[in-house]
From TrEMBL:
GO terms for biological process: translational termination. GO terms for molecular function: ribosomal large subunit binding. It is found in: Cytoplasm. Keywords: Cytoplasm, Protein biosynthesis. CDD domains: RRF. This is Ribosome-recycling factor. It comes from Candidatus Mycosynbacter amalyticus. It holds the Pfam family RRF. Belongs to the RRF family. Responsible for the release of ribosomes from messenger RNA at the termination of protein biosynthesis. May increase the efficiency of translation by recycling ribosomes from one round of translation to another. Gene3D superfamilies: 3.30.1360.40, Ribosome-recycling factor (1.10.132.20). Residues 18-182 form the Ribosome recycling factor domain. GO terms for cellular component: cytoplasm.
């Protein structure tokens, strides 16, 4: 018998990865996860910002970074400023770092939608690869006489159904994010 569970788990993993990637795409509102990619030079090593400070969004257009150790405030400010993909210009008052999140222009919004659609395509490629692996395994088992031809066809149908369901979820996530990006 052929077990499709590992492939279902891989497809769900690909979907979860896509969701994580979507969180990194900026919308017009400030969100603490926007700074997840920032690495801070503290204690002689590079650590993620969330291990050196608390990040909150007190206002829709501003992030507030409160360092656990006030001695790291300059390093935090520099790390946020140096991350060119974010394009933020933080300022600190000696206790906290304020990061204004500029409003998105129409041109930037369209570029973000395009960037997000590229992430969708990457997720689809990952799903197709998982599907191919499953079908190869089923074919190999059929040739090894562990599966009958009917079982192989049933497995292919099951994998295709899984694939279709996952694609629908992928499209729903993309449409929701696109709406979020384009909403002013």
């Amino acid at each position: 018998m052929f077990d499709t569970t590992p492939y279902e788990l891989k497809m769900n993993g690909a979907l979860e990865h896509f969701e994580e990637e979507l969180k990194k795409v900026r919308t017009g509102r400030a969100h603490p996860s926007m700074l997840d990619s920032v690495l801070v030079e503290a204690y002689g090593t590079r650590i993620p910002l969330n291990q050196a400070a608390n990040v909150t969004a007190p206002e829709p257009q501003q992030l507030l970074v409160t360092p656990f150790d006030p001695g790291n405030i300059t390093a935090i400010t520099t790390a946020i400023r140096d991350d060119q993909s974010l394009g933020f210009n933080p300022s600190d008052d000696g206790r906290v770092v304020r990061v204004p999140v500029p409003a998105l222009t129409e041109e930037r919004r369209k570029a973000l939608v395009k960037q997000t659609s590229e992430k969708v395509e990457d997720a689809r490629i990952a799903l197709r690869n998982i599907r191919q692996d499953a079908l190869k395994d089923a074919k190999a088992k059929k040739q090894a006489k562990e599966l009958s031809e009917d079982d192989e066809k049933r497995v292919a149908q099951e994998i295709d159904k899984l694939m279709a369901d996952t694609q629908v979820k992928l499209d729903e996530l993309f449409k929701a994010k696109e709406k979020d990006i384009l909403t002013i």
